Amino acid sequence: MTRRSTPQAKIDDSACPVRVLIYVPGMGFGRRSDALHEWLATRIGRGNYAWHGGGRGGTRDRIALYFREPDAASACLTAFPDLELADGTCLPGYSSPYMPFGRSEDDDTVCNLYNQTTTQEAMRQLFKGMSMTDRAGNVAPGKIYPDQLAPIIRHDGKSLELVKARWGMPSPPSVLKTQRDPGVTNVRNLTSCHFTPMK
Q1: Displacement of CA 107 from its chain's centroid (Å)
Q2: Residue 164 is inside which H or E element, if any?
Q3: Angle, vertex CA 186, rays to CA 183 and CA 190, nearest 5
Q4: Is 151 helix (H, G, I), strand (E, B) or coil?
Q5: 111-155: pLDDT as tens digits
Q6: Prediction pTM value
Q7: Under a CB-based contact definition with an 8 Å cutoff, are residues 48 and 68 in contact?
Q8: Residues with Cβ < 8 Å from 174, sequence gap 6 or more?
């Protein structure tokens, strides 16, 4: 397993928003690690996943696999059914056995990926009868990733307008190190300052 620098990990986290945490077996992965690496490289493609150390979950070590698409993560878990998922996995349908009532981790997080399923006309129809200017151009349904433009409806001071804005959340002032705000794409802690009114 190759240890990556922090900047590379942040790049991978942004580019590959689907995270799968896997417990390291007691005796290690052994040859399964080679098979997993080979499968990922040939089936998913080197640019479509990342592999990092996943820290510890309780008393056990974990690895973290990052994917661009939920389907790729699901295919990997189907190909390797003996992999044991760890809490912290951010994958649709994952339900933690250690959380009350089997709730999914996603119940308590703001994930960085969403699907736009509503058409442009349906967005306009939500405010039927109100004056609205459409400045969004062509808006096609699909997956919206961090740092991509996505449709929003806002008030421009006179009337409503449908425009595209960059998807993400601003960083808390306490963590900014430069004038440029790279933004936050995945807020997993509901007690963070993102959800605390500024005084």
Answers
A1: 14
A2: strand 160-166
A3: 110
A4: strand
A5: 566 667 778 888 888 888 888 888 888 887 777 776 678 888 898
A6: 0.46
A7: yes
A8: 193
